């Protein structure tokens, strides 16, 4: 079979570029083992987990503002999650059918050489010749092996389509200190589950802005056990006994569910191992080019910004640069990609949030009107402006609607807007975004 | 008494400028008949009405997504509304005490001449000399007189602090077709009230983008009676009989509550009548100058953009231009002020939404992920880009979170961002703002 | 022969796109009857004419500032002009050799159908198959026929490589009122030639900003005869008698040289006549697409902005859009293309210079420092800012260095910079550009 | 005497702010020992030196392009310089009379305390009370003392109004390696003077971008003697013997003129010594505030950017911040101030020209069309773009018109424009600015 482009992976790093190339007449083969578009994000990641989060948050609000307990069966929540996944699977099918030039193949791709890709379709090998390859094979959870690891689930098990987890546990141990661990702990706590975090080292959320993490944690009030490596999980009746270290001594906990959230790693298609960097990701430049001519990589697999929205942007950049045969016409500004932690409250940041010498302004969420309406007044907004030019370098926020505000802030960072420009704009009242102009006005 | 500046009105057009001037050492007198800061917006306008709206929306969501009816006493909702008002009154008191240079006086101001203002404090006249006057006396509902008008309330009665309306009526007639009428009808419908709109002419929401209104109305499904002037309201037991015209014949309706939402008009301080334009507003330029030297006007009273956030921006511009003694150093771009209709779903617009020849892109909310999570998939986003330059001229939206997205869109309009710039930014996933980049990417 | 793209024309609308496509691996054929790259601009247009202009200006300066007459043989000036043309022909040859994928063919192209182009090479027809065609065949002078027209030259004759005109005439009649007529009259006047302009109607420089033209003309002090259609040119010894109408009566003039500058028209390749609009240009949109799929047009031939720098920009846009197979990824903003009249002084404009309601600021060149140094203090700068936003809408200028300043102004117009942004920048002192910030600062 | 503001210094750091304050009704006293507006820049600095430079350049061009030697008496050049100075003195007088609120006093100011300034007017002390003080006392040449230093001149002697230097020396020794030394050496060489530079260390133009200096020096071909400290100057008849060290041994040179260009230092008004930093400048922040409330400093005296255009910008910022009583409303972005070395060719830079990791593009002036016309093809343009965002970080240029181009580049740096934005603009052809877009297009 002959194609212009083979796209390996049908998630955020894959399908947007595939569709864009098809729009311009390219003949594209998209290969994915899942057999559906959307990647992990849709199958078991951001979309289902945030559906659960939004419903948990809504239920929590009734109680928090109006003092009324709403009893909801977790099955109902999971059902709505499945519905959203179904809607989106269908949406992608429709998009696929609208883009005539894309052929979809369920299978596992292997790169023989830059011009030849072999796809394993149910054990049968299909040979494909292509001018360009876009690797967008994504990432997967690292599932460590230890005594009793077979009793543990990952977030994929929790959120996958038609998940087996349909009842809320009373008590839950989450192993790990990354953003998935924190999100799940926060959301399930709000749903009434007693959660405990086991963290190997003395910090959580490494790589996130330190002050933001501090602010967030003081609001989340999670039960975090630091310096607590996990040794073993034992099944005891319908419960689990979790054995872990703490301050040199072994301790144990009884719980109903153990979830591992111990990191993710790139999925490297066979034949592209030589393209990886020391961290195991496919090495790419800002134009999404790998070290091999005509081979591009986008999304989680290149480790530049492992978020769905970044993957989509990279996928499009790869598509444009394939059109230009690798003489770049599009570059991705990874620094201006916003990142959100979907805990309750959420926390978001974008740009340079550790500038060496900048004008720093703060807005406390207790003065923000929507937070007052919801009685969720925890949090802070911080903006960092370059001295002299007043250009917005970056910002972070903990609090209501951070996932929406961070886009206004991010657009400003991406396009070099200044404190004055933010100040001159009259953000809608009442909307949480107002605090962007309020904060900027403190400089003037 | 001698002051540098007298600010007439303590709402959005008044206190921000007063505080900014005080920060720069100006001696400011702020006069307001209410005796509290925040103006109508806080006392009986946007803040309390949107608190009710948010709670109504949250309750509605539980039912709409999870199929569960939450019974909430309206008293609880009004109580939370009062709490928010109290928090904000205190917040303003704190701000006032933080700005040493501002003296607050409860009273009614009258302008004798540009340098002399008389304040009526409980019937006693206080003479004040000032170098500058900032008129920010706001607007008030027009309450027409007709037989039975004494039985009718306005939105002020509904939302004022410690409102007497603490129970939901079963049935409610709203007279008017402006944005307050539509918002109240939409929100109270979601709370289970049967609402009816009596509209004098054949259109509602005049001045709003036509296509947006059409999209919104098809989603709101309100009971609107066009060409239906109100003649009389009669009290019949605990109910009201509303008599109105319709197609040349008189009709009547039985209802529990009649609310008049028949427009607002500027509050013109005595002595400044000569400064008004033909529509009864104080005439000002983009620098907030009136036709009288050293007299400025900001907020609803000048009719340029009768929204709280616009008032705040104008108030600050007036403050800066007072510092510069009327040789302007700050101008307000009224065209880039966003406007939101807080119905459920909400509708927002900003900039030029009727360009003569532009590239127009559309994104349907049924494909938007947060709308899917909430099962509120009505609505549309429209963006308008200038041909050639691809500069964003304006946009409108009906649907989930329009009040937040409109700020990202508005910042782009205000600062001349292009489709390409919007497309290059990776809006946070999942967040409704994603559709801004998705829409922009359709152009490229 | 098979190519990916056939580019018809090797001028500003042709070679930049051809080179860009070759850089991305496209196999490009470029066809031009001249046999050299650079088009009219280099062969007989902007480059040679401005070389003469710059030298004339330099000579004039010595006299004007230092009071010293420099006697220069016109042959020397023409020799330098030829040298510049030679340098640039070689430069283009080098560029051609650097872009392996471009084949150059001297000949005349005819479009059989969108996929087949026939090239007449010295009478022999070569058949070429191509996926895309870029028409960039430029424009040519309109040379009207009348008694004695064979005695008249055009600007092409004056400025072509190895021009036959090597001596300055004492007296010269220029027929026409367009920018070429004005430029030649101005430059040759400065060289000591007595020039006369015969203009058919009652205006010159139609399409240029009216106020700018007025300012320019008052400085140029040319001998312009309006409403003076030309009837006949007779050879009388070594001189010419020019017979023209004036106020209903025939008049005549004796002169040494008659130059026709009576407009230009598009060169339409055979087979593409169906693609033209009512003015005889190939009709294209902002993405340089014609009404025929896979056929694009750039440069003078589409009449959108008949200037070399606009042609280059359009050519590149066409190249990018060819890469995208006509689903546009690049658009040209014709409104922000600067235009300069290379008279002495020069005059330039960009953007919207006739806004209906804008803040207009003026800077007089008599206060500008470089003009004072050169003792060339005629002229004015005008900038137009949008009310409220202070966005720079456009500007025009008559005076020293307008051709350089217009770029700073144009960048600002193209990217929506505001009066405040211009004011915040400290333009280099001493440089004429300072007046850009000085003018902007008048608003603040 | 009582004033709102005392401005110490009537140069670029002083009068713009004084005028702006007066425009807003402030009562301003401006004090300067020179008795005329314009400061050193006009009296003996950039304006007169660049007038000489422009004329030298024009004369040189005739010879360089047309091969014709123009003999010009240096007196004529100095006369034109004087004329320009006279025009500008008058211009400033006119501006002063247009700004009613500014009182000008010839004298020397001393700060008794922030609210009291004493002015020495011809030995008589005038006491002035003021609310604000703006120190803009500028800088002056450091004139070292050594045997024979009384025979040496500074650039001030060369360029002051009615300078005594009216004849060109045949041979000239310039002591120093700063920009004044290089400019004078370059310009006087072009006028036919044999120039020699004595430089103490092993580098010239410290603080300027290294690669730019290297490129410039290779074009200037100056006679520079490094590691050559000056010991003595002896008068020998009508000549001077200059004795200096070189490689450990003493050497001597005979010359007609010795000019010292050994740096400048801030002029600190008495009473403000406590406000200086370790380098002897008044310490100010980006808002032009000193460590003393209500005392501001602008221009050379604060050492932030010792250039006239920077001084003007700072002066205005100080004025706005005085209006705001020191709660800043304007900040100066020193990084985006362009700097030009007015040698022939000139060299200019702006922004960050030493980024750690950026996309760097180069354009050689031999390919630039105006350089070809003038046969001055030396030089290079370098632009530095941020990876990913493609934002222009900075640029430098050696070659024709660098002083004009640097403004287009600087506006882009100041406002965060990207390679794509520069590339999308069609710079005027033919104008040197074209290379800005040409260079940017190399990235795409």
TrEMBL record, chains A, B, C, D:
The keyword Cell cycle does not apply. The keyword NAD applies. GO terms for molecular function: dihydrolipoyl dehydrogenase (NADH) activity; flavin adenine dinucleotide binding. Residues 3-313 form the FAD/NAD(P)-binding domain. Its cofactor is FAD. It comes from the Archaea. GO terms for biological process: 2-oxoglutarate metabolic process. InterPro entries: Class-I_Pyr_Nuc-Dis_Oxidored (IPR050151), FAD/NAD-bd_sf (IPR036188), FAD/NAD-binding_dom (IPR023753), FAD/NAD-linked_Rdtase_dimer_sf (IPR016156), Pyr_nuc-diS_OxRdtase (IPR001100), Pyr_nucl-diS_OxRdtase_dimer (IPR004099), Pyr_OxRdtase_I_AS (IPR012999). Residues 363-438 form the Pyridine nucleotide-disulphide oxidoreductase dimerisation domain. Keywords: Disulfide bond, FAD, Flavoprotein, NAD, Oxidoreductase, Redox-active center. It holds the Pfam family Pyr_redox_dim. Belongs to the class-I pyridine nucleotide-disulfide oxidoreductase family. This is Dihydrolipoamide dehydrogenase. It comes from Metallosphaera cuprina (strain Ar-4).
């Amino acid at each position: 079979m002959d194609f212009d482009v083979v796209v390996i992976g049908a998630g955020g790093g894959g399908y947007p570029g595939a569709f864009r190339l098809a729009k311009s007449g390219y003949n594209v083969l998209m290969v994915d083992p899942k057999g559906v578009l959307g990647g992990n994000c849709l199958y078991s990641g951001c979309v289902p987990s945030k559906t659960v989060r939004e419903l948990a948050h809504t239920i929590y609000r009734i109680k928090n503002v109006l003092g009324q307990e709403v009893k909801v069966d977790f099955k109902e929540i999971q059902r709505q999650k499945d519905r959203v996944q179904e809607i989106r699977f269908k949406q992608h099918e429709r998009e696929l059918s609208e883009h005539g030039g894309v052929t979809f193949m369920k299978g596992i791709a292997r790169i023989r050489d830059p011009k030849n890709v072999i796809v394993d379709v149910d054990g049968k090998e299909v040979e494909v010749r292509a001018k360009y390859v876009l690797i967008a094979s994504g990432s997967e959870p690292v599932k460590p092996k230890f005594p009793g690891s077979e009793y543990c689930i990952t977030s994929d098990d929790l959120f996958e389509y038609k998940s087996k987890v349909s009842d809320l546990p009373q008590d839950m141990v989450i192993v790990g200190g990354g953003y998935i661990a924190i999100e799940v702990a926060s959301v399930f706590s709000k749903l009434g589950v007693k959660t405990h975090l086991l963290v190997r080292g003395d910090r959580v959320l490494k790589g996130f802005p330190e002050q933001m993490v501090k602010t967030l944690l003081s609001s989340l009030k999670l039960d975090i056990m630091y310096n607590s490596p996990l040794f073993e999980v034992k099944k005891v009746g319908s419960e689990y006994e979790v054995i872990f270290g703490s301050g040199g001594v072994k301790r144990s906990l009884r719980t109903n569910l153990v979830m591992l959230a111990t990191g993710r790693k790139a999925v490297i298609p066979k034949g592209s191992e030589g393209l990886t960097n020391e961290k195991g990701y496919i090495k790419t430049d800002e134009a999404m080019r790998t070290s091999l001519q005509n081979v591009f990589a986008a999304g989680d697999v290149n480790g530049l910004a492992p978020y769905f929205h970044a993957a989509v942007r990279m996928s499009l950049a790869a598509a444009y640069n394939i059109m230009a045969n690798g003489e770049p016409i599009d570059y991705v500004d990874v620094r201006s990609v916003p990142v959100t932690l979907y805990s309750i409250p959420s926390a978001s940041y974008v740009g340079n949030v550790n500038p060496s010498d900048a004008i720093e302004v703060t807005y406390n969420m207790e003065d923000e009107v929507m937070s007052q309406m919801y009685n969720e007044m925890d949090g802070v907004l911080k903006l960092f402006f370059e001295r002299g030019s007043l250009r917005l370098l970056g910002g972070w926020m903990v609090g209501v609607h951070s996932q929406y505000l961070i886009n206004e802030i991010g657009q400003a960072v991406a396009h070099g807007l200044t404190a004055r420009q933010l100040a001159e704009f009259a953000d809608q009242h009442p909307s949480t975004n107002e605090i962007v102009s309020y904060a900027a006005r403190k400089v003037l």
